[in-house]
Design brief:
The chain is α+β, with helices and mostly antiparallel strands and 222 residues long. 24% of the residues lie in helices and 33% in strands.
């Protein structure tokens, strides 16, 4: 076993290498994603998704070492008049015409949103794509690793706050609340699965992506 939930998950470069190898294998996809999906989320095949002509986006699940432990960086969005206002998210955004692929999109958006250059990031692999119905985005999550990060430089117009969370936090089932009360942008109140980190609630697409990542971590542990 590479790490133990009874103690903090200590940084080990061998684990990062093993994770990279694990991401080359067949991904669990919906079987893992829907563990943290709201009950109202539809099951759509790719044909149905493409009928909506979704916008393409890339996000970065960025791992890095901090004080001897492996962490993930999240952003809390600014409040705005839109469906994802104030939500916790990964650095990322819409594919630009200059991007060669979705990895390039995720790297560019990471630089723009939190100030981490692509030269600092080693791409370990990708997770399963995810369709986000409220914003009509088809998102491609990229997993990256940075040896060390001294400072983040959040994009002031989009990022309210940088939130750093240890990977070990997500492996503790005590941090999952399957019936978290959320008020949607239209005022509707729903109960959804979420990871609760202090005052920060990670739900929706970000939690769904994390669920697959956690599944892969659990697979490594097994």
């Amino acid at each position: 076993m590479l790490f133990d939930l009874e103690t903090d998950m200590k940084f080990d470069i061998k684990f990062v290498e093993q994770l990279s190898e694990e991401l080359k294998k067949e991904l669990p996809g919906e079987a893992a994603q829907y563990r943290m999906a709201p009950s109202y989320r539809p099951h759509l095949d790719m044909g149905e998704i493409l009928k909506h002509e979704p916008r393409l986006g890339g996000v970065m699940l960025l791992l890095y070492e901090k004080q001897g432990e492996l962490n993930i960086v999240f952003t809390q969005r600014k409040q705005y008049d839109g469906v994802h206002s104030g939500q916790m998210s990964f650095p990322g955004g819409k594919k630009d015409s200059s991007d060669n692929d979705m990895v390039a999109t995720a790297l560019r958006e990471t630089k723009e949103e939190i100030g981490i250059d692509k030269e600092q990031i080693k791409v370990l692999g990708k997770l399963s794509q995810l369709y986000i119905p409220p914003s009509n985005f088809l998102v491609y999550p990229v997993v990256g690793f940075a040896d060390s990060i001294e400072s983040f430089y959040p994009q002031k117009n989009e990022v309210e706050k940088i939130v750093e969370i240890p990977v070990s936090f997500f492996l503790d089932k005590a941090n999952v609340n399957l019936k978290t009360e959320i008020k949607l942008f239209n005022g509707t109140v729903v109960h959804v699965p979420a990871y609760i980190f202090g005052q920060h609630i990670i739900w929706g697409a970000t939690a769904i992506i994390m669920s697959e990542f956690v599944f892969i971590l659990e697979r490594i542990r097994a």
